[in-house]
Write a structure and sequence with these properties.
alpha+beta; single chain; 5 strands
């Protein structure tokens, strides 16, 4: 899969909010653990650091998988299968021949993968960006 860009969408800001959320959540969990088990300062710090990393990883994974599709984030979800009617053009812009195909789109918040399967004169031709559908 390849990275892609959406104009007007600041991925760095999303990463910062994921980081702030994980730090605040981890701090709360570490505080509860310290109170519950009377941990020493070093133990609480170590557990808070590990917890922050785990929470950030989990939040990022969940966001990348599902949450980015929420309308609030304004990232178009074009995943799925699309039928295509295309034309191959000559150098002068006239139509050389028409063709039909199917585009498969796999998309997450960070990456996108496109698969084009087309039928030209009964033969199946494949054009792929990182992976192919089979004819």
């Amino acid at each position: 899969m390849h990275d892609y860009a959406v104009f007007g969408h600041d991925r760095a800001a999303i990463g910062r909010w994921l980081g702030v959320t994980s730090i605040v959540t981890a701090g709360g969990i570490a505080q509860l653990l310290a109170i519950a088990s009377n941990l020493s300062g070093i133990d609480a710090f170590t557990r808070a650091t590990i917890t922050t990393g785990i929470i950030y990883f989990a939040l990022h994974w969940i966001f990348n998988k599902w949450i980015w599709k929420v309308y609030f984030f304004n990232v178009p979800d074009i995943g799925g299968t699309w039928e295509v009617i295309g034309q191959t053009l000559n150098d002068d812009g006239s139509s050389k021949h028409d063709w039909n195909g199917v585009i498969g789109v796999e998309q997450t918040w960070k990456t996108i993968s496109l698969h084009l399967r087309m039928h030209v004169s009964g033969d199946c031709k494949k054009f792929c960006v990182n992976g192919c559908l089979h004819c």
